[in-house]
Write a structure and sequence with these properties.
Elements (H helix, E strand, L loop, with lengths): L1 H24 L9 E4 H15 L6 E6 L4 E4 L1 H17 L5 E6 L3 E6 L30 H11 L4 E6 L3 E7 L5
Parallel strand pairs: 2-4
Antiparallel strand pairs: 1-3, 4-5, 5-7, 6-7
Helix pairs in contact: 1-3, 2-3, 3-4
């Protein structure tokens, strides 16, 4: 049962990633479903998926909902963005926790993980880049996909980090409420 609970979100993630890659390969967004999305509900679902994957770590994942944030967008593309960011925060945090905060026009994900050197911050958004200090498995496409999607939909993304202290990522939604 535990294995099935981990496989189901992984299958959903693969479907979303495939759709995101297809979108980025096309010139336009035809066929992409846009609807009014509750960012709060979507983030809550992605937290649940991350908790299943990283349950053995015993991380504290805090969800702070200062606002009820809604956006007219593709729920699948938003899932790809926030799923990757939340899972990365959990993956690179061995002790302490992850905090996800919904602000007025942004979502912020902060962790107490290994952090990233200043000279690597821009590189983490490049395809196939893997940090020198990474112990996680992966192929280095998650954050590059996140960056391409946030650029495509005009959702500015910023990252601040300090080695040994943690990383904070913010995705802003300045348009389209």
């Amino acid at each position: 049962r535990t294995l099935v609970e981990k496989i189901n979100p992984a299958a959903k993630e693969m479907e979303e990633l495939t759709q995101a890659l297809l979108l980025l390969a096309r010139e336009n967004e035809s066929g992409l479903e846009h609807q009014r999305v509750s960012i709060n509900d979507l983030v809550r679902q992605e937290i649940s998926r991350a908790e299943i994957i990283h349950e053995e770590k015993g991380l504290e994942i805090r969800f702070v909902e200062n606002y009820s944030l809604h956006l007219n967008a593709s729920p699948k593309m938003l899932s790809v963005v926030f799923g990757n960011l939340i899972r990365n925060a959990c993956a690179y945090t061995e002790k302490g926790g992850v905090s996800i905060t919904i602000g007025d026009k942004h979502v912020e994900i902060a962790d107490s993980g290994i952090g990233i050197h200043e000279d690597e911050i821009q590189a983490v958004f490049e395809p196939y880049y893997r940090s020198k200090q990474s112990t996680e498995s992966g192929h280095g496409i998650g954050l590059s996909l996140v960056k391409r999607l946030t650029d495509r939909f005009n959702w500015p993304i910023t990252m601040n980090s300090q080695p040994g202290v943690g990383t904070t990522v913010r995705v802003a939604f300045p348009f389209g409420y």
